[in-house]
Specification:
- This protein is mainly α and 401 residues long.
- The protein has 23 helices and no strands.
- Helix 17 packs antiparallel against helix 18.
């Protein structure tokens, strides 16, 4: 790499030497064009436009240094372009040269452009606070449409990085409906902000515009699937998401399997939900709610052994989820004719007061099973039956109790 860099620097030096040779040498009757430093400046500008920044900078420096009056227009322009070359070449003194131009030529109309370039330079360095400060000095109406788009996007992204969400949203909104090279990423970040703010319909409209974009197209379908799910549009999830599982990024597949499984679950298609919920459960750290959901899907498809195993993962805390898990666990044990385990599960469900209907039924079944199990103390059965009669005197099962 050092060798290649040396070759480039030598080429730049050689170009400038040849250029200056044409300017400084000639026959006795030198033409005015070759004695005029304007010619050197024009050639340097040509090199700049051809992105030969190293050679251009050397030439601009020569123009500036050869001028008796450093405040002439051509000298100021040479300083300006020399600083821009330093920026394009990633030189460490680029920011210094840009700021020095402002100090040396405060009346130059190019100062406004320097503000813009200092903003871009700090954006490139990811010093977003400084980028914002310089961008805010720019008179936006001095810029071309393309430069306006660049400023709005880079300032918007800088605001986003600084958690100034409202200002970022405003900047992205300025260009997301225009035809510039910054409009597509502006649409993405605008939609992402709306997604985080739970403005799902607005986010969905933005993401759907990017489905065929080569950069964002691979990413946005996951947001679209999630938005359908968050909007409770479960049939849309079922129609949209399966294709993503075959072509998706590995890290996103578990979450995609989860929302697809839950969409089947929410539409009571439990048998179809199970493969996706199982796929999610194999690769993710489960919550108690996750375990209950899979257990209930097993329960509804009469897979009692698998249901009991999942329900056991959902209990442990006294809440509505645990009460439901204990209740359905008891029902599974009854199906397996394991009355003692069923008695214990219904007893746990009846102990909790979160769901009145579940508690009433669980208490009755617990009392009934306690009575039927011959090895249980009858005083326990009597106590349970009396409790049921006292708490639910109007129940159709009071006489049976």
């Amino acid at each position: 790499m050092k060798k290649m860099s040396g070759i480039k620097e030598f080429k730049a030096y050689l170009i400038v030497v040849l250029l200056l040779g044409f300017v400084l040498t000639g026959n006795a009757q030198k033409s005015a064009i070759y004695t005029d430093k304007d010619y050197t400046f024009k050639q340097a500008l040509d090199l700049y436009e051809k992105m030969e920044f190293a050679a251009a900078q050397l030439a601009f420096i020569h123009v500036a240094e050869s001028s008796p009056d450093h405040h002439t227009l051509i000298s100021a322009d040479a300083d300006y372009y020399s600083a821009l070359c330093a920026m394009e070449l990633f030189h460490r003194d680029a920011e210094y040269l840009l700021k020095k131009f402002i100090h040396d030529h405060p009346e130059s109309p190019r100062v406004r452009s320097v503000y813009f370039n200092l903003g871009k330079y700090n954006y490139r360095k990811k010093t977003y606070k400084d980028a914002i400060e310089w961008f805010n000095k720019v008179e936006i109406y001095d810029l071309t449409e393309e430069d306006k788009a660049e400023l709005y996007f880079k300032r918007g992204y800088s605001y986003l990085e600084r958690d100034s969400i409202a200002k970022a949203t405003s900047d992205f909104d300025e260009i997301r409906d225009k035809n510039t090279k910054y409009s597509i990423p502006a649409i993405y970040y605008y939609a992402h902000i709306q997604y985080n703010a739970k403005n799902y319909e607005s986010a969905l409209q933005g993401f759907q515009k990017l489905e065929k974009d080569p950069t964002f197209g691979p990413v946005v379908p996951y947001y679209i699937a999630q938005i359908f799910y968050l909007q409770h549009k479960y049939n849309e999830v079922i129609a949209y998401a399966p294709a993503l599982l075959d072509s998706g990024h590995t890290k996103r597949l578990p979450e995609l399997a989860r929302i697809l499984g839950e969409s089947y679950f929410k539409t009571n298609r439990y048998a179809e939900a199970i493969p996706f919920l199982e796929r999610y459960h194999k690769t993710a750290s489960l919550t108690r709610s996750d375990s209950y959901e899979l257990g209930y899907a097993y329960y509804m498809t009469s897979n009692c052994d698998a249901a009991i195993a999942s329900f056991k993962e959902a209990v442990g805390v006294d809440d509505t989820l645990a009460q439901n898990a204990w209740y359905h666990m008891g029902a599974c044990y009854l199906k397996k004719s394991n009355r003692q385990f069923a008695q214990n599960a219904f007893g746990e469900a009846s102990r909790l007061h979160f769901n009145r209907a579940i508690r009433e039924d669980a208490l009755f079944v617990f009392a009934e099973l306690t009575y039927e199990l011959s090895y249980s103390p009858f005083n326990q059965a009597i106590k349970a039956l009396q409790q049921y009669i006292a708490e639910y005197p109007g129940s159709p099962r009071s006489d049976e109790a």
